[in-house]
User: Fold this.
Amino acid sequence: MTQHDSLARTALVVVAHHRTDSLTAHTARRAAVRLEAAGYRVDLLDLHAEGFDPRMNTADQPDWNNREKAYSDEVHAHMRRILDADVVVAVFPVYWQSVPAILKGWIDRVWNYGFAYGRSKPRLDGKRILWLGLAGATTGDPVVEGMQTVLETNLSEGIAYYCGFSHSTVGLLTDAEERPQRVDAEGNLLVGEAVTGAEREAQYADLDRRAREFVEKFVAEERVAA
Assistant:
C-alpha cells in the first residue's frame, strides 16, 4: 500500500467508558495516536461524551419484513461513520466477560437489520475490527483463558463475522486494576494490595506496550490485506 493510500484510510475508534480519565480512555487515545502515526485519519467516537443512548426504541427496532426501514437520524449518522471507516477499533472495560451496556446498545441499535446483516452482500463486507478489552483479572488467573474464548466467540464469531467483517481480533489487556484480584481453586476471591508508585507506573507501561503491540499488528495485517 502506498503512502497516499494509507493517508486516505480511516479508522473509527470507539470508546466505551463513562470517565475521560479512565485507563480505558487513555488506551483509546494512545491507540488513536498510533493509528494517526500509521497514516490513518482517526474518527474518535466517545459514546458517553457524545450522549449515545444505548436503549432500543421503536424507531430503531428491526422490521424483519423491511430491511430498507429508515432508522432514526441518530442511528443513520452512526451508520455513516462506520461505512466511512476502513477499520474499527473498539476500546472498553470487560464487564462480566462481555462489553459494557453502552457498547452493546450501540451494536444493537446501529449494527441493525438491513445495514450490518440481512443482506447477501453485507455493507460492512471487507472491513476489519480490533476489540481492545481491559480486564481486572491478573495475567495468571485461570479465568483469563475462558474470558478470551468467550469474548472471541461473542465479538468475532457472533458479531463481526456475522456482519461481514473480513477480520476480527480480540486484544485482551489483563492487569488493569490497581488492586490485583483473582479467584482461587476453592472459589475464594483474593484481593491484593493496591499497586502504587514505580510498580504502578511499570504496570501502566506494560499495559501500554501490550496495547501498542495489538494495534501495530492489526495495522500491519490491515496494510497487507489492503
User: Anything to note?
Assistant: The first helix runs from residue 3 to 7. The two ends are 7 Å apart (CA to CA).
